[in-house]
Structures
1.
Amino acid sequence: MSLVDSDWLENNINNVKILDCSWHMPNVNRNGYDEYLKEHIPGTNFFDLDKYSKSNTDLPHMLPNPKAWEQIISSLGISNNDKIIIYDHSDVISSCRCWYNFIYFGHNPDLVSVLNGGLKKWKLEGRPITDNKTKILKSNYKSLENKNLVKDINQINQNINQKKFVLVDARSKERFEGKVPDPRKNVRSGSIPNSLCLPYKEIVNEDNTFKNINVLSKKFVEIINDKDNNIVFSCGSGVTACVLALAYSLVNNKYSPTIYDGSWAEYGKI
């Protein structure tokens, strides 16, 4: 159950751990944590995507090491058998990145879900919000890293000729085709050779909910075989790639989300 709706969450709110993983592009001048402090779903803690990523790199949102992940999740009071609901209040649906991280580090995929539509839909429906901070009882979380769910730049380069997997880019077509400057400094325009493009905005509605399964299936079938489990997703910095990965897991329930972690921030570096 990669997605839950707001009815489900409101009915089960006392039986789950809730995380706000709001992250915004650098050029929109918004701060996810500041927004969390002002309003969030009751019982929610904040997952800081920048802070809780690999620290000794200049690349954004890279996966931390397993020990660091255990410390992060333990500090949030989450245990291995917890049902986790993740949401965001972001146009890039950043909750999907947190969803991917949990699966990468071995949390049962059936126990981690994204709130469809996030805080935007929750508020539009008039559901409860608060500014009260949630008390945390530290846990002892244990990770089980699955390195098959991530690709590095060497594997990406080898695949250009070997074509062992299909690489799909979630950025806009303008960015993918190099028609607009990259929003990050010291990153050129363009895309990885032999990669395909499916902009993540084409698979979500205006209220940030995912489009229905039939529409999602048609979108993927336009560029790939939707029975193929050997699909890798990329984007600018590893966030919206996870939006496509979650969407594809809805279409193909045998698919395990696989990401090029460095994405274009690494590959397009000048």
Note: The two ends are 40 Å apart (CA to CA).
2.
Amino acid sequence: METQVAPGDQLKNRFRGFYPVIVDVETAGLCSQTDALLEIGAYFVRMTPTGTLETEEHFHAHVKPFEGANLDKEALEFNGIDPFNPLRGAIDEKEAISSFFKAVDKKRKKAGCIRAVMVAHNAMFDFGFINAAARRSRITKSPFHPFTAFDTATLAGFVYGQTVLAKACAAAGVEYSTSEAHGALYDSKVEAELFCRMVNRYRVLGGWPLRYE
């Protein structure tokens, strides 16, 4: 017999109809308007029949610098990316964003949510690069809420007293490898695990589902 999930434990009801997608990007600088987007990593989530949030499938793409993009030497040394290495298997920015949005929308619809919401560590950075790439690609329909995002740095600061990703993961008991860090897929994975732990912790402590007297 299939377990019935209480309304408060359905993913479509947990975040006001929003479907959270945990995203990380690697770039060739700090300015989304001028610097190249080089890598997108994202993890999708699902709600178990017992109301626990957990990660499932992921999306990953290496991205070719757009024409005229700035490639900051310090940024590339920091993330270790050679934008023109053919072994990256990089695809055009438009193809990457289009494929990403389609994958997000498919998951959003499956969960019965009205909109996706981006979750990221220092979210406005990732949000800005994804939106700038979409504008350059003339992709006008995004599955993400246009101005709302969930910031795991802020949430971790509230829950664990830590805002640096490595320290927040340590506080949450999430394994974090400095040797694998600064890769979009790996970082989105640990950020997703951190996000799920915070959401689940709040539920265990009795904060969700909301109960009114």
Note: The first strand starts at residue 18 and ends at 27.
3.
Amino acid sequence: MVVTHGALQATRGRCALTIGNFDGVHRGHRALIDRVAAKARELKLASCVLTFEPHPREFFSRDAAPARLTRLRDKLELLATTGIKRVHIVRFDARFASLPAERFLEDVLLRGLGTRWLLVGRDFRFGARRAGDFATLEEAAMRHGFRLEAMPDVLFEGERVSSSAVRGALGAGDLRRAERLLGHPYTLSGRVAHGAKLGRALGFPTANIVLRRPPPLGGIFAVEVEGLGPGVASVGRRPTVNPVPVPLLEVHLLDCDQELYGRHLKVCFLEKLRDEKKYDGLDALKQAIAQDADRAREYFARHG
């Protein structure tokens, strides 16, 4: 998969394209991409995804934007598993937000990407003040000679698949529902940073991963760390000691005591054990962590 970003120059290539945030790369996104890939093969075009960084709602709403399911790095890794040939990342900034719909069509879709076949949902909006819609695309397709197709909603087990539905499941601690909608377990990833080493002092050393944005879930979880095995993780603000303004991911590995500083970890969330809680002192906190580790071990014994 080729990843490009930044300004687009006029291309001689031609592509079958779909457009979106693709947050979480869930079953609905995969159905969309599968359709693009199939059509690209049929028409002998390159298959392409156009996505944005940051998400448009993060640009417009800032702190009120919904929690991200996947960082850009993780999203690209998931997209690479779909067989799509190219991903172009548009920087969503004030200049791009002010781009008129017709300019977006001509400069980005047609001249920049060489779009000959386009798949979007009927609720797709684009251009400054969201002036462009599916009807705009239909008129442009007739005028410029590309083909347009509308993607219907994707249902799984009777439920419409969407990033909002995944966020709702994660926020409620329903990891099984989230996994059904995603088509894969939910993961967070990041680089291990130095902390206050309080976990080691309590007998439960943790790998601390700073999250740039508040995640869509919180609490204490049984997790699997890719390449390192089972663990118990906390996602929260550490209310008992050393509170943090943005939730922190702290992972205690159950069967591994390697030095992890600076390593990039991928943490797979399997079962929510409880909500985060403020304790009356370090002794109570230590006892709670021990109980969490025991419950995580029980989970892995049942699902081993």
Note: The chain is about 35% helix and 25% strand.
4.
Amino acid sequence: MKTPVSLPDVAAETDHRGVALHAVGIRGLRLPVLLRTPAETTQQVIAIADLSVDIDAQQRGAHMSRLVEALYEWASEPRTPAEVKTLLKTTRDRLNSRSARLQMQFPYFLQVPAPITGTPGLLDVEVEWSCRLNNGASYAVSAFVFPAMTLCPCSKAISDYGAHNQRALARIWLQTRDHLPRLPDEYLPLVQQSASSLVYPVLKRPDEKFVTEHSYENPRFVEDVARELALHLSEREELIWYRVECESIESIHNHNAFAMYESPKRK
């Protein structure tokens, strides 16, 4: 049996330049993550993760493999969004750091039945978590991108018949009082109330008739959608901050239109 070779630990060497680094880590790691949903089900997503820690001025480098291991271990069993804090604590402690940061992006699927026939379908929502643990204090921003639909009020008002409509993207960023990331399930109804219509994954003819007529009766500029979302979110007690944006992927213009609102920080 061969004697194990002792290898130098270059990352643990002392650095003499006197510059502490705020974030050192891995970026763009793709991995499967099993999430526990608010509906008490599990959903596997393919996430892209950045994970980092701070290092002191005298420490030459971080042990990057420990970051990969921490992510794999954390993702090996079903997790709730609240358990992101567990990952950050493990990472911080394993690398003897004061802080740890996580950036994670993944598509998340919501069950959305067709409005009339009830035909089941899955609506994909882009989710991004930006989380940080610093000396015990935590910070998290959740971002969601919902597909939606807008119908132009101006087009409806000036046309003898019809009105142009288009797919839109309703974007929501939020911070909650518990400083934990969120999933988008509870915020989809707010988009439904704010846009001309939701975008449905499956439409039979009765559903298409409904969506066409419903959106015609609910014309919305991007400004309208942004304001409606802002008003709905202002009533949510769990939030300390939010930003909303609606971008309309224009059907008759060679440009998109957008509107944005950002709330002040609540105490």
Note: The chain has a mean pLDDT of 94.
